[in-house]
Amino acid sequence: MSRQSSPDVVVVGAGFAGLYQLHRLRGLGLSARVFEAGSGIGGTWYWNRYPGARCDVESLEYSYSFSPELEQEWEWTERYPAQPEILRYAEHVAERFDLRRDIELDTRVTSAVWDDDTSRWSVTTSHGETVTARYCVFATGCLSRPKDLEIPGLDAFAGPVYSTARWPHAGVDFTGRRVAVIGTGSSGIQSVPVIAEQAAELTVYQRTANYSLPARNRPLDARTQDERKANYAAYREAARHSPAGLVGDLPTESALDASPEQRRAAFDDAWAQGSLGAMRRTYADIGLDIRANDMAADFIRGRIRDTVTDPATAEALAPSDHPFGTKRPCLDTGYYETFNSPHVHLVDLKKTPIERITERGVVTADGEVEVDDVVLATGFDAMTGALLSIDIRGRDGQALADAWADGPVSYLGLGVAGFPNLFTITGPGSPSVLSNMLVSIEQHVDWISECLARLERDRVATIEPTPQAQKDWVAHVAEVGEATLYPLAKSWYLGANVPGKPRVFMPYIGGVGAYRQICDEVAADDYRGFTLQ
Ligand code: FAD
Ligand code: NAP
């Protein structure tokens, strides 16, 4: 098939963001080429095929809202569907909206260079092809670039090393094998119980104990689904204007004003619901006041101690070094219970850090544990990693890597000063990873699409944030972040998981609804804070 060498738009990435962006561009009558490094579409749900991978936002909320027909025809089978089902959904969307013909798989974008004379981006791919485009939309994902592991000796390991974020498509049979899982974030916590079902011995290497709540996943019954479908428009609208892109009542009461019995009942209720949002929504100050947060954290630690029979293991699993919610909490199915099995062992890396990996296994101060397989559930170079692994150059050849040397700066998480006609979807400085991502993705794509429509209609050649607007926005993002408990954790939100990465609280915590309003006002005020030429 012949492809345009100078489409109107290049979109990088074919996850949920890239797919919807392509659909909207078609609606605007703009030509587009979408480049995707993977061999399939779906982004996160293409790559992360580890055992137990599933979403922790309910399917009826973690799905597109842009097409009422799509909403009605798609049937989810579970409250929190597993990776294969979410990937099938992405594939269904691509087929239904005939998106595949503009998507090039196995094609990594290696550089994007702005040319001031032609007002176009030159985008080069891993196949050596260079195309030029008026606009470049980076839908490269916040959690798409696995972080490099800084543990020495990994190359020496004689057996297979699996990464949860690059899981073999054929699956892995751990039956009878001795397995090491390194990392206890969401990926580790989801995969450990499933790997434990097969493995002969499973050793879990934990650097930071995380807060995890029981998912209470279940099949979706027809009544729940029908009820939602009958009222979908209202639910979606509520989600769009909520703090985190999730529907639910907002608390006004302080945990400090409640009696111990009331708090216990509220936390018990949230625990029974099986939802991250429910625990956060128990009281208004859970994320703001350390005393309120401690009450929720104590409750969770108590449940861990109730569940794990060995007291030393329970103590190690109970998070103590960061407030609840300041690292992304997890939803699990049987995680803590798994440690009651005699063949599952926990190594607390706070006490005995990993020194190295050898040909045979993992060495800590306690000696070597021999294993057959190593599973890395060690996370991502989040929010900036995928963007900075592309050589992006704006006006006067300025590299994005230089502009972001002290941490990412952007206006609204949508554009960067000095980089005209460049848009990022769920970029740093937007609510993105603090929200139901589907809501945030749709909001960004809609905003970008309306913006492009305006530029096209009025024959505007370039749009770019002013340095002042960007500076003010970056200051605002930092200010609202600092007013919360988030900076108290060494989290990937702050870049703290990647050695040498600047410590900047990257997402915007002002809330999805408030942020949407700001973006809408900026657009209504003829793109206040942007220069249009
Ligand atoms: P991605 O899905 O990451 O897609 C980006 C795509 O860009 C990738 O396919 C990548 O290969 C491609 N790409 C990157 N760089 C290049 C390049 N240079 N050239 C070409 N292609 C490139 N969010 C939630 O809200 N709820 C959840 O329950 C949830 N669960 C998650 C579970 C896991 C295991 C992970 C890792 C993340 C989860 N997230 C969840 C976040 C998730 O990333 C988003 O919900 C959403 O899928 C992101 O879509 P995206 O299109 O923005 O990015
Ligand atoms: P993560 O949350 O960053 O967890 C990585 C884990 O690896 C952490 O326990 C980390 O410890 C540990 N680690 C990293 N480097 C290490 C090292 N050198 N030595 C020892 N341990 C090391 O990554 P993730 O679990 O892949 O999740 C990332 C995000 O993706 C989540 O927060 C969530 O947003 C999303 N996600 C969601 C789901 C879901 O349930 N829907 C599932 C998976 C992922 P430290 O904490 O000490 O850094």
CATH architecture of one domain: 3-Layer(bba) Sandwich
Heteromolecules bound: flavin-adenine dinucleotide, NADP nicotinamide-adenine-dinucleotide phosphate
Which stretches are low in confidence, meaning pLDDT under 50 for 5 or more residues running? none
Sheet/helix structural class: alpha/beta
Main β-sheet: number of strands, strand sense, barrel status?
A: 5 strands, parallel
Strand order of the largest sheet: 3-2-1-7-19
Determine the number of helices (DSSP H or I, runs of at least 4 residues). Answer: 17
Radius of gyration: 23 Å
Tell the overall outline.
globular
What's the CATH topology label of one domain? FAD/NAD(P)-binding domain
Question: In short, what is this structure?
Answer:
Helix content is 33%, strand content 16%.
Structure description:
With 533 residues, the protein is α/β, with parallel strands linked by helices. The chain has a domain at 9-146 and 382-458 and 511-522: FAD/NAD(P)-binding domain. The chain has helices at residues 16-28, 44-47, 68-73, 83-96, 186-198, 222-230, 232-240, 260-273, 276-280, 290-307, 311-317, 335-338, 385-388, 400-403, 437-457, 467-482, 512-524; strands spanning 9-12, 32-35, 103-104, 109-115, 120-125, 130-133, 135-138, 161-163, 178-182, 201-206, 212-214, 330-332, 344-348, 354-357, 361-364, 367-370, 373-376, 391-393, 422-424, 463-465, 530-532. Helix 1 runs parallel beside helix 15. The relative contact order is 0.14. Bound molecules: flavin-adenine dinucleotide and NADP nicotinamide-adenine-dinucleotide phosphate. The site of flavin-adenine dinucleotide has 36 residues, from helix 1, helix 2 and helix 15.
